[in-house]
Amino acid sequence: MKNQQLLLNDIAAEIKYCRKCRLHEAACQGVPGEGDPSADILFIGEAPGKNEDLSGRPFVGSAGKFLDSMLNGIGLARTDVFIANIVKHRPPKNRAPKPDEIQACTPYLDSQIKIIKPKIIIPMGQHATNYILSRTGADFQNISAARGKLYERVWLGRQVIIMPIYHPAASLYSPKYKAAIKEDFQKIQALMQECQREYKVNK
Ligand code: URA
After folding, report:
1. 198 C-alpha to ligand 1 centroid (Å)
2. 89 Cβ contact partners less than 8 Å away, ≥ 6 residues apart
3. DSSP states of 97-137 as a string?
4. With 29 labelled, which of 14, 79, 191, 197 sits at a CA distance of 20 to 30 A?
5. Which domain CATH number covers 103?
6. How many domains, in total, are found in the chain?
7. pLDDT at 202
8. According to the model, what pLDDT value does residue 200 have?
9. Rounded distance from Cα 201 to ligand 1 centre (Å)
10. pLDDT tens digits for range 99-158
11. Whose CA is nearest to atom 7 of ligand 1?
């Protein structure tokens, strides 16, 4: 059996040549995601932006810098978690991904989740939260109502905790969102500690 990193590399190679929807036409390259291939925690954004499209890496622009600072604030580095998007190619002019693009692309995310087996999934923003919650049969109204709530769900046959947060880019527009994201990262830290305790008990 191939190890997790090699399996993730196979998916990244498929994404590179993906033509399942129109998004590849205007994009420079696919952005599969990166991080610890067996991370306990998976962060999911919407779609690559300009900097991500140029570099091939997720969350490297200003929203990414804020995400990094939030992670560092709770004692985590990017390399301790996995960061991915629901859509792997940049939508033109950073428009929101369309339903058929999300449908075409999310089998890649599902495969990544099967390989990584995270205990905690953090969808960031409206689109990622809508996909993840509806995929697990949870009711989703809007991100303001869902953020900071814990959803204990079964995802692809495994028990996971899902906690939606506002998209990090929202922090750039309003101090209100910035404060809410900071508050939710404190919850993420507590969740991580709980997961680690449970792991030691069950070992
Ligand atoms: N916004 C996202 O949703 N994903 C990225 O990778 C960058 C910005």
Report:
1. 31
2. 18, 21, 23, 24, 27, 29, 30, 31, 47, 48, 53, 105
3. PPHHHHHHHHHHHHHHHHHH--SEEEEBSHHHHHHHHHHTT
4. 79
5. 3.40.470.10
6. 1
7. 59
8. 66
9. 36
10. 999 999 999 999 999 999 999 999 999 999 999 999 999 989 999 999 999 999 998 789
11. 59
What confidence tens digit (pLDDT) does each residue in 43-99 have? 999 999 999 999 999 999 999 999 999 999 999 999 999 999 999 999 999 999 999
Ligand 1 near 34 CB (within 6 A): no
Structural domain range at position 75? 2-202
Token readout for 9 is 């590399």
Q: Which atom of ligand 1 is nearest to the CA of 125?
A: 3
Ligand 1 atom closest to residue 63's alpha carbon, by position in its atom list: 8
Pocket-testing residue among 46, 66, 88, ligand 1, by greatest number of atoms within 8 A of Cβ: 46
